[in-house]
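Work package 3, deliverable 3.1, input record:
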Amino acid sequence: MNVRVKLFGLLPRRFPGYDSEKGMEVDLPPGAKVKDLLARLGISKEEGGIIAVEGMVQKAEAELRDGSVLHVFHPIVGG
Amino acid sequence: MKFLRVNMTEKSIKAEAVPQAYRGLGGRGLTSIVINAEVPPSCDPLGPENKLICAPGLLSGTTLINTSRISIGAKSPLTGGIKESNVGGTISAALGRLGITAIIVEGKAAQGELYVLKIDENGEAALLPAQGLKGMRTYALVKTLQKDYGEKNGILCIGPAGEYQLASASIQSTDVDGRPCRAAGRGGLGAVMGSKGLKALIVSQGGKNPDALADPEAYRQAAIVFAKAVKEHPFSGQLMPALGTSMLVGPINAAGAFPSFNATQGVLEGWEKVSGEKLAETIKARGGKSGHMGCSQCIIRCSNEFVDTKGKYVTAALEYETVWACGGMTGITDLDAIARMDFLCDDIGVDTMNTGVAIAVAMDAGYKPFGDAQAAVELLEEVAKGTEIGRIIGNGPVAVGKHFKHHRVPVAKNQSIAAYDPRGIQGMAVTYATSPMGADHTAGWVVGQNLAAFGGKLDPLSPTGQVEASRAAQIATAAFDSTGLCQFAATAANDVPAAGQALLTLLSAKLGTALTPEDVTALGVRVIKAEREFNRKAGLTNQADRLAQFFYEEPLPPHGKTVLVSDQEMDRTFDF
């Protein structure tokens, strides 16, 4: 399956040629979870702590669907 | 270790040794416990019985990084309860280096009289008549004060809003560049300062008499460990200097919890135009500054300098909460307009949050259209002029709601919520409702653990576990806000065991007592107990620990949730 990933904060710098308007497409095996996507991209949990799929934040174990659009943010602290 | 008691009725200043009961306290712990002991809970917040207390943190004035928070406390004219609002800048370290534990401003000058309190490098304090400063806005005011008294001073001051004694009036603090751009914004403490007839507090940064450390060598070593952890942590070492607090705009919108159009939407359409990424990009392209140092001894550098298209200074530290209040809530997605509003709020001396939300409520009531930046700027100028509508706006969202008979007023204990909708992150409903401070995100920030993909079980849209999370965060924060440390340095202390241990060592080496984590928790509980005791006597019982009614009745798009934490659950938060 194929998902579209948009990266925020300092994450885009990690991927040369990343298009901030469109994001990037990632191929994953069926049944892949949020944590599998991050592993595929080499983003550790210290770097990518908040993942939203179609406007809902998801936990690491949530399953992805073909065509999903994901937003990946750093973990947040503060106020 | 001394208190300076400044009596504005008698124009007297007395230095006294810190009484035994208050030893070992600083910052919020000190302001709240002294207020509970000395201020009559039923007093008029703008009358002579109220006291305005300025207390540097326990570790302020030492060599430790990021210890520049000063707590300012009083009975609040906004909430009617106890208030502590803390702010960075340079004055906390300056007071710490003079060995001043707190300045307690009592009494009240005769109506129309205005003074400044000046403390020199030897700790000598003087009250000086300042009629000529009447009505001055804060940027012009600090320029005048720096010309008259020198640039090497830390300054706390009020603008016209404080002199009008408006309920959203702030106390502004000068940053390392000497600009009054940092605010103890919450709770109307500027009105308390104005009621006393005090326009500014000016403290020399040249003090060389800090309190002795019980164990200087242990302190020195722990300070190195702590600083290293803060510098190496990805959040405080990389992310904050690059993007500042506005890095939160993206994730909170993605979570559907960014209150917009006066909290009728959970996602601001076009949020990418006001995101931390966009802000940093705009500042860079125009030649402004990100990664700017705002406070003494700061190594995180979350501050920024926003400039216009010609590269001219507009405002410093355009922060997430301001982008939200002046932008998201009003439907204004133009960074230049938001930056202008931020500057005006600092210059006039009002809380950007309570004031942005007040304007949003007026817009929601139909007084002005959402998204009308010109109207928003004009309303702020009305606050400065002290016109009727200006005073209504400057008294905050509840005053606006009453005036326009509009029901949707997003507050708890009369204070506006912050940039996390309690329907989209239910844990923030608990903190807003139960904090003795009124709706205050910094009092118990449970956003990160609600949204985290890893290591957390909280569902932001469910009430399960939120009371426990908020309680723990509120207790930890009450203790932390007593240290003078910036909350952004807390990340390293929480995530890196060696840094957490170093913080305990620092406190122990300062006080000469071996502290355990349980002692720190006990301090947080003691502070909250004192605050709740004061509030109960002031008439704020558990019935006041509720959010505005509409939060329980109007679902927030996109998730369609209301606040689901029951009153009984709210009352469990502090069942100690």
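The mean pLDDT of chain A is 92.
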